[in-house]
Amino acid sequence: MSSEPRGFANLALVNRSLRELYLRLTPARIRQFGTNFELSPRDNNPGDDPVIRVQKIAHHLAYHYRISVSAVIVTFRSDMTVPGRVELSPSSEFFVELHSDYRHALNPTVAILSHEVAHIFLYQAGIRVEPVFFNEVLTDTTAAFLGCGAAILNGSSQTTTTSGNVVTTQTKHFGYISVDEFGYVQAKRDAFFRVAQTPLVNRGLPMSGYRTGRRRLRSELSKPPFAPPSIFTRTFDALVSGFRNTAQTARPEKMTFACAFCSQPLRIPLLGKKISVHCPTCEETFLCHT
Q: How confident is the model at residue 240 (pLDDT cuts 50, 70, 90)?
């Protein structure tokens, strides 16, 4: 249940997943998830047995996702090849298994459970995509975009050890998308809910991934059509336009781009001015420079 810890190798699938969420859940339902998931003191009682603690966390996550369950039963196993897995069924009882390595590791446990309970949410919503890897990316994206992004980021860690002149850095994270991609989804969530930034992300690798994802999103929004073209771009476009006029080639009347929120392909007329664009999928309205 892991991929490369850094980078944006799966960004296209992440954005396809976001579009799928908007289409299948509707923006109105997504707006119900305006609160980020956060552990309560009751969830993190040091005196609790680890099994009791994970049961409480699982139930809290089920409540956060607004899913109908009679029981989420969590157990630990030592013979698993993945950090966690969930058994999905039509009944209202769900069984989650976690690797025993995380029995006493709170942040990794929350990160794993956030993904597994998101599987239950998508199952009950009737949302599944193929192939399997895309479905796992959809599950990660769903978990982060519906409020568990900080919790999943906080499950990641980076340790550096020195032996003689050799320095070794080990990175640990959970999910099928990278730490940076989780940060990107969290940044898109922040933008959707008009939040400057979430204060729940821990220092170290979690904060680094969050900031890298935010920078990636800002970079996308700093380019046309979301931002005015640079002087170089305007000069180049003028030269191309002049060449086309000379060659008696008609200038394209529309331009196509991906919505900044949900990546829905949009087409707008080339009017040479700033216009307001409404996306029918995520129902967001924003200014574009044509």
A: very low
